Structure of Crotonase:
Amino acid sequence: MMYNYLKFEKRDEIGILSLDRPKALNALNEEVFKELTCFLESNDVENIRVLIITGEGKAFIAGADIKAMQEYSPQNAYDFSETGKRVFDLIANLEIPVIAAINGFALGGGLELALACDIRVASEKARLGLPEVNLGLIPGFNGTQRLPRLVGAGNAMYLMMLGEGITAQEAYNLGVVQKLSEPELVLEDSIKLAGKIAGKSPNALRLVKEMVREGLEMGSKDAGKMESKEFGRLFKEDQKEREEGVNAFLEKRQPNW
Ligand code: CO8
């Protein structure tokens, strides 16, 4: 599939998806969401073990396309918000780990996309924030829900009410970002991290992701039960990855998943 606003490259078992609309700082519009949906539902994601999402040029993503939104009716705005949520849920629900390699500005909807990823690596020079309140808007792609689940209500309110970009170091201190990189090494460091993760049991990675994602929507007792159930299920005879992982450890060799 040919994309206008996306670039995809595969390095071994790692996929690198770049938002490629640098003149508009990779701002998200309906066309970008269409292409992202196509990509996320394609075979490309089935054939990799870890996906990295990054941006071309000086921005990761500077938000939803403000120019396109200017003409929106309430129904258009509602639909756009729902479309964005569907796309970000596709990212969050992928069975493989997803790393956001934040090479520059991650603002508004751009930060919301990064929040739908599992891990965020950021350039020390990146700025991150939710500037919607400056436009009389609120985050509309689930940011009001994902951010407090990640960093707590106080830190989320701080970012959403401040409406200013914060430095990558501040974002790291708040727990929005998990790893900082020198600006020219963001992608390389993300690939290294992806490579380490790609060596782990794909089934275990899928389950970790599912337990965290589902668990955040449940009470802790029910979530704990769900975890025990899945842990027990791993000891069924058909669970080859668990068998291989344990055997490899005992035989002092690398597992072959
Ligand atoms: N949308 C559309 N175009 C954009 C956007 C954007 N979000 N951000 C930048 N651009 C464009 C600029 O207009 C400019 O275009 P042109 O060359 O044609 O004038 C080009 O990208 C380069 O930008 P700048 O010249 O402004 O670059 P600077 O380095 O001077 O500044 C900034 C970079 C600080 C990132 C600045 O561009 C900026 O403040 N951008 C807007 C950031 C922002 O407010 N983002 C939040 C948008 S709202 C949002 O995301 C809500 C999500 C929920 C939507 C819910 C659905 C209804």
